Amino acid sequence: MDVVEVVISYMNGESYKVLFEIVGFIRPNFGAEPVKTQEAVAPGDGRYGWPVTTPQNNVYISVNVSKDPVYKTITTTFGGGLGQNLVQQIDVFVMLSDGSFFEGELEARMGATVVTDGTNGTDRVQVVVAYVNGETYKIIDAELGSRGGIATN
Q1: How does DSSP assign 86-114, residue by residue?
Q2: Is 11 inside a domain boundary?
Q3: What is the side-by-side strand order in the sheet with 73-80?
Q4: Against a cut of 0.90, is the pTM above it?
Q5: Would you say residue 8 lies in a domain?
Q6: Residue 73 is part of which domain span?
Q7: What is the pLDDT of residues 60-119, one digit of tens each?
């Protein structure tokens, strides 16, 4: 348990306590379905097999994926959100059209990016977020073609 105390002190020397509260850990209402665990990973190819789900608004985070139409680089960017402080890990999986794949971890920090080379073909990107309470959601599963593209959750 923690104690939060707010005291306002004026220049004339007077002070007033405006808040005194004992605070404990409160588990947020995650409640969105379905919840999957790491066991759901398809063997060998690094892809998550369940459908895209959106966490509730109180734990929502924003992630943007884009493929450059000229250089073919794939950039995944963290955009923040109400659930930013509740994120344990954000995994980025990129399955390239040549059969290879890339795995990276995106920081839950505003503006953080993960960049990888794409191909001239259609590349598939999946973004999976795990929260501190153990719940895991696939928030993006998109195919980005040879002309580039953008995917957001």
Answers
A1: GEEEEEEEEE-TTS-EEEEEE-SSTT-EE
A2: no
A3: 113-117, 73-80, 62-67, 149-152
A4: no
A5: no
A6: 38-152
A7: 999 999 999 999 999 999 999 999 999 999 999 999 999 888 999 999 999 999 999 999
